[in-house]
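thought: fold this chain, then report.
action: predict
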Amino acid sequence: MSRSISPVIPGFGLTLGYTLVYLSLLVLIPLGAMFVHAAQLSWAEFWSIVSAPRVQAALKLSFATAFAAAAINGIIGTLLAWALVRYTFPGRKVIEAMIDLPFALPTAVAGIALTALYAPSGMLGQLAASWGVKIAYTPIGITLALTFVTLPFVVRTLQPVLADIPREVEEAAACLGAKPLQVFRHVLLPAMLPAWLTGFSLAFARGVGEYGSVIFIAGNMPMKTEILPLLIMVKLDQYDYHGATAIGVLMLLVSFILLLLINLLQRQIAKS
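observation:
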């Protein structure tokens, strides 16, 4: 006669109940309220708001800069994670702490610091201006701020995966005649790609909704450097709650579709 082993944590029913209640209170109910508020608009009114040139320009800017920042961090974050996992060197602990700094630093402080550094009167801003490049108050500055904020998502997602890849596998491939590029392509890349896509998705999602670090360095010029979160705040300041809700719904739908496609790609890669 077999004896059932009682689990250490509560059973499935209780944990699922806690999960659903927690998600409902923090995610589903607020998002549902936003959709209900937006439903008070007719389709013509909703389309008139979201298709306005100012909204479309902010939409393109927010998602383009967030994608660019996530892609940059996808490269830089991979190199940082590799160096921190595979090598021991002086100052390694300092770099580890610096990577987590965007998590602890208020985003407004980061925005002010980046603006002071890259503004036309700033130290690096003057250097860039001498080369004919303007960073602050341009999409380049917005991408820079988002890169700073979203870097930890890629690094911290990749580090455990890289640490779990045995070095013996790489050495065995090298002993069999594989070149470094072949080792990376056939051994390392398949193992780290799902985690890389997860880090990319997290960085992209954070970049789309980032506000504090961007408003200072963006300059907030309509049709040029105005991001969607700022446009929502402008609508709220004007007591245009329907307009702010409609833009929020648009932002949520586009983000959900893009993240869903990334997750489907990640699942397809994991199965192959």
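thought: worth noting. The CA atoms of residues 193 and 269 lie 8 Å apart.
final: tokens above.
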